[in-house]
Amino acid sequence: MTTDSVSTGDDPHRLLADVRDLTGRVRRDQRLTWVALLVLAAVTLVAIPFDWFFLKLDCDDSGCVFARRGMLYYWPPALLLAYAAIAVSYVRAARERGLGARVLPYAITGAVTAVLFTAAYTAAAAYFPSNPPFDGGPMPFWWIVLDRLIAPWGLIGLALLVLSHLERNVPLLVFTLAYLVLVLLVLPTTEGMSAPAWVSGTNAQIRLSMALPQLIVGVVLLAGGIGFARARRSSSPAGGRSA
């Protein structure tokens, strides 16, 4: 980051404006939004084969029972490693610029979400096989939203909200809100539920229906990371600003 020396004279308004501008430039220079999104995109996309091959699927005339053990094997350590890598990237970039890093709350939030997911998934796996929710009937919409919120892709969105607050990053906030709308309300409802009629033919079709939402989430995070990286490069030469 570079700063320009400006003579403010005796004008307090000019001095205040310069201080605000410098503060904004420091905040923008601290942002590594694209790193966080690309790391999370990679973690999400790598999760697909784990979920595919470790999915336990037992079907009979009454329907199908799923045990997505790959999620439990993969996501807790993957999330911890991802947030650790993001935190290290922020700290290194801050040291190179001689700035302080405010990424610790974000890293803590990420670690907490990993623990929350593990506890919620373990409890659900232990309880619901012998106590199916809603007697096998259609799941209420609020249950689907809650299920997605405590899933890894929902918890990623919550952690991104924390990062947008720490960075005072309005574009990231807008991206995260759109991402949460996609994850909670738009993704196909086959995710984590019983097999719908249109995919009930083969195990491969059912596994595909489980992998599709994760693929969508991974692509969205990847596109967001690429977009923020391009915005950073395009704005840096003109004013030293970063996205």
UniProtKB/TrEMBL annotation:
Organismal lineage: Bacteria, Bacillati, Actinomycetota, Actinomycetes, Micromonosporales
Keywords annotated in UniProt: Membrane, Transmembrane, Transmembrane helix
Highest taxon above the source species: Bacteria
This protein's name: Uncharacterized protein
Residue ranges crossing the lipid bilayer per the database entry: 32-52, 72-91, 103-128, 140-163, 170-190, 210-229
Species of origin: Actinoplanes lutulentus
Transmembrane is among the record's keywords: yes
